[in-house]
Amino acid sequence: MCSATLLSADDWIAIGTGALAAGTFVLAWVTVRAGAKDRRHDDEKRTEDRARDDRLRQEALDQAERREQAERTAREASASGQAR
Q1: pTM over cut 0.70
Q2: pLDDT digits (tens, 9 = 90+) for 28-58
Q3: DSSP state, residue 1
Q4: What are residue 7's phi and psi, to 5 degrees?
């Protein structure tokens, strides 16, 4: 065997260190990308929830107004019926 083709322990340590650094970088990059995607999804969901809550709140207000109007109309009708 030719000693020029064999790698020393220091060479293997350097290769392993480089591979570990590259793997760590890729893992960090993937984690950051996944976190950004999760945040976007959470923001979209929060926006949808807020719109739904606003719609339900408005519907409840409209229903309360209709109920008050019906009660007012009933009182007026009752009052005018008693006045006769």
Answers
A1: no
A2: 999 999 999 999 999 999 999 999 999 999 9
A3: -
A4: -100, 145
Return the domain boundaries, the chain.
49-84
Would you state the structure tokens that stand for residue 13, as one six-digit string?
């340590």
Please state, in angstroms and rounded to a whole number, the distance separating the CA atoms of residues 25 and 19. 10
Give 3-10 contacts, CB < 8 A, sequence gap 24+. Answer: none
Say how far apart CA 32 and CA 27 lie, in whole Å. Answer: 9
Q: Where are the alpha helices (DSSP H) in 1-84?
A: 9-83
Torsion-angle region of residue 7: left (phi > 0), alpha (psi -120 to 50) or beta? Answer: beta
pLDDT band for position 1 (cuts 50, 70, 90): very low
